[in-house]
Each structure stands twice: as C-alpha cells, then as structure tokens.
Amino acid sequence: MKRANTVIAALFLLILALMLALTVLSVPKIGGAIRADWQAREEGSSASWLIKASFAADHAESALNDALDRPHVFIEIYGAVQRITGRRLCADTTPDTSVTRLRNGTLTFCGLGNAYIDPTDNALGTAAFAASMEEAGIPFLAVVAPEKIPAGTKPLPAAVEEFGNEIGDAYLAVLAEQGVASFDLRPAFNGREDYSALFFRTDHHWKPEGAFFACGVLMDELAERYGFAVNEEALAEKNWERTVYEDWFLGSQGKRVGRSYAGLDDFTVYTPRFDTSLRYTIPERELEQRGTFNEALCFPDRVAGRNLYYGNPYTYYSGGDWAKAVMVNENNPGGLRIVLIRDSFSCALAPFLALQCGELTTIDLRYYKGDLTGELTAMEPDAVILLYCTSTTRLENMFSFS
Predict the structure, then answer these.
(1) pLDDT of 339-355, one tens digit each?
(2) Which of 14, 280, 363, 369 lies 20 to 30 A from 33 at CA?
(3) Half-sphere exposure of residue 290, counting CA atoms within 13 Å on the CB side?
(4) Neighbour-count burial for 231-268, b at 16+ CB within 10 Å, e otherwise
(5) What pTM does this model have?
(6) Distance CA 109, CA 85 (A)
C-alpha cells in the first residue's frame, strides 16, 4: 500500500511540474494574445479600461487553455495514471460521461449513480407512430440494436450498474403489449463468439464489421416477414475487400481518457468486388455524390490522415448524422423503397442496406423538423424501419414524431 501511495504521489508531482513547464512555455503566446486583443479593442472603441482588460483576460485564458490542451497531454497523463493504478472507473462530471473499463479491456460510458431510463413513454410514442403508418398502409418495424455489453453478463466493477439491456427489454415489452411489430438484433449478436470484436474498444458504436453483420440479419428478417428480395451477393463477406487502418481511431470514450488508458481501435474500410452505382443526396448540405459504393456513400477524407482527437473515422460511412438523406441504388431501379429512422448506429449500416434497396431514405429525429407522418404517407415506401440502440440514444429526445 505504501509503495502504491508513493507512486501516486510521484505521478502527481510530475503532473504539476509538467503543467508549470507548459505554462511557462506558453507565456509568449499568451502575451501575444493579450496584446492583439487589447489593440483590437482600442481601435475605435469607447469601452472603459476595465472592460477592455476583462476582455483581454478572457482571451488570455482561452489562449492558455488552447496552448496546454493542444497535444491533449493532460488527458493522456490522466489516463495513464488511471491505468497504472488499476482504476476501472474514470469518473467524470456525470455518470453519462464517466468511462468504465470492462473486464475485456473495452470501455463504456457508465459511472456511479447511472440511472435506469424508463422507456414506456417512448414506446407508447412509437406505438402511436406505428398506428399512423398502419393507417396509411405502410409496414412498420421497430428494431433494437445490440448493446456493447452482452445481455446476461456482468463485466462492470461491483459498484457500477448499467441498464442498457434492461431498457431494451422494457421497450420491446411495451411494444408487444401495444401490438407493434418489432425485431431484436441482440440474440443474433449474442450467438457469436467474437461479440466484443464487433464493437470498438474505445467507442460505443459497433464496428463496420458489426454493421455489416447486422444488415444481413435484418434483411433475413425482412425477407421472412414481408417477402422482400435479398441481394445475397452484397451480403457475402467473400465479395468484399477489407482494408484495415491499424490503430487509427480513438472513440468518444477513448477521447475522455486517452489512448494511454485503453489503446486505439483499428478501422475497416469495405470495398465491394462487384459492380455498384449509387447516388447520395444530403439536402441540408446541398450535397450530391454519385459513383461506386465508396465514391457515393463514403467519405475518404475521414480516413485520409490519423487525427485521434479531432477526427472521426466512424463517419467514413454515410458522412455523419443528417436530418434526411437519400441513397439511390442505380443498379436496382424499381427495387425496395425503405425509410430508415435512425440514430448514429446506422452511419455504418445504411450504406450496406442501400445495396438491398432501390431507394433508402434515412431520417434522424434529432435533427428532422418536418411533418414526418405526412411526408412518409405521401412517399408510400415499402416499409418504415426504426432502428435504435435504446441505451446510447437518449430516448427522451428521440421519439418525437410530430
């Protein structure tokens, strides 16, 4: 115990010394920031000396924070200390942003005081929306994505609780009571020995490998439930080239504790070995991309260089979260027209699903502001699919279908 305390004390002193050194080295930059801000406010300004000094001080504080944090050295030191001292819970300002290391070494957002979120109201909202789709004659299916923590396992420290699977179970139970068609992806994932390998170590999302697998499971369900045709060629792993960018991704959880705590993730780019021709339209960005799978639906700039703290390779697929986007498969005119109501898990899934469709429209309720029921009724798609990870998506902010 004494030895451990000595190590911690030494690390603490080292951190203080490093902070002091970085502060001293930042003095020229801070001084320049104060002078620049003061001069800018001197020109044509009638503000008092005190107000100008206050603005300059604010600018100096911002410059100091930027100088110290630019290499994210303190995050890395913090993570290294937590790792050396064997801490599995890295507390943050709230349980939602606290990071806990699971027994297999991967990370999750979960801390002391993590609360169970009752999904009943959201399930009832989903049921009401499903009823509006039924009235319009449009098949509706609510799909629950898998959690990073497999159901029935306890990989967390003893004092930490996590309720992702319980929330998913409760959500599906209410949908069943309301007679809403639903599908649970979790059993298919639970049946795989490489479950954890389908999720990033440092992020809450599934990997492209997980999204690819989920697309196959979902299409099998749609074929059985609605008789939809399946493009088997696009679901066969052998028909895809996989390029792995090693140690390329520091996810949202890893960014809070640094790569020194849990390492880095590899990132996989899928490229079809078969002919593809697609068009991708994102109205809010006034963007249209055409070409092959990778040219139209993917964003190569997201993996063009490794940028651990400011980059997000996960958005290589789909480009990010958009209020509405449309993927048209020009090799399948007259194919399925599906609307996918989605969260960020579908960034990686949507491009694979688009190859099963003639037209795939994605809608993210966090950003969509239109009359969804009216728009979908006018579109008359072959199916509306809602796919969410019920714990990582803040349900109370998602299920607003007005």
Answers:
(1) 999 999 999 999 999 99
(2) 14
(3) 2
(4) beebbeeeebeeeeeeebbbbbbbbbbbbbbbbbbebb
(5) 0.84
(6) 20
